[in-house]
Structures are given as C-alpha cells and as structure tokens.
Write a structure and sequence with these properties.
mainly alpha, 2 helices
C-alpha cells in the first residue's frame, strides 16, 4: 500500500513540478540576475573607472622613468664612443707623426672630427658613426708605408 501511494504521489507530483519549473524558471533566473548580479557588476564597473586615473598616472610615471633610464644609457654609450674616438685620434696622431718622421706624409691616416659624426634619427642607437673614409684609408696607407720604411 505504501508503494502504491508513493507511485500515485509521484505521478501527481512530477508533472506539476515540471510545469512549475518550466513556467517559473526563466522568471526566477532573470529576477536573480537583475537583483544580484547587475548591481555587483555596476559596483565593479565603478571601481574600475575610479582607478582608471590612478592607473594612467602610474603608467605615465613608469614610462617617464623608462625614458630617463634610456636617456642615461644613451648618454653613457655616447660618452664611451667619444672616449674611443679620442683614443683613436691619439693613436692616429702618433702613427701620423711616425709617418711624417719617415717622410711618408702622403700616407697619413685620417682623424675623426666632430663634424664627421652623423646624427641618428631614431634615437635608439648612439648618436655617432664612424666615417666611411677610415676603413678605406687604413689598408691603403699601411702596406705602402711599410716597404718604404724598411732600408
């Protein structure tokens, strides 16, 4: 008897629950979305928008710091290049003095002058370049000078 009553109850109860769920489920979900999730999303949106100006300011500070570091690094590299040019010019001066002493004035090596330095537009490389005349002058001058200098 108990089994029969459970079966009858089940047959009566399941269709009513199914109909209620189909009829009310969408409304309940929509109501829950409107009352619970939309206000939370609005609060999250306000929080994000309120932090936008802080994030923008922080990004500006970070970019400024990176730019200062790049400028300092470029200045350091430029200083190194200027020191190397000075060393090169001193070495060339000594070699040219030796060539002049050996009366080989026509085979002197060129110096690097300030006006020969080429500016770089993109800013990512050092602001100097070695003139094109140097690689051509060294191989031509030295081999010719050596045989004449040896007695």
């Amino acid at each position: 008897m108990k089994l029969v009553s459970q079966l009858l109850l089940k047959l009566d109860f399941e269709p009513k629950v199914s109909a209620t769920v189909r009829r009310n489920f969408r409304q309940v979900i929509n109501q829950t979305l409107k009352t619970q999730l939309l206000p939370a999303a609005a609060r999250q949106q306000e929080e994000i928008l309120s932090r936008y100006s802080q994030a923008r300011a922080f990004l500006g500070q970070t970019l400024e710091k990176e730019a200062e570091e790049l400028i300092a690094n470029n200045q350091r590299l430029l200083s190194e290049v200027e020191q190397k040019i000075e060393q090169y010019n001193q070495a060339v001066g000594g070699i040219n003095a030796c060539l002049k002493a050996m009366q080989l004035d026509r085979h002197q090596l060129p110096m690097i002058a300030e006006e020969e330095l080429l500016p770089v537009d993109n800013g990512s490389e050092a602001n100097t370049a070695i003139p094109d005349a140097i690689p051509d002058a060294i191989p031509d001058a030295i081999p010719d000078a050596i045989p004449d200098a040896i007695p």
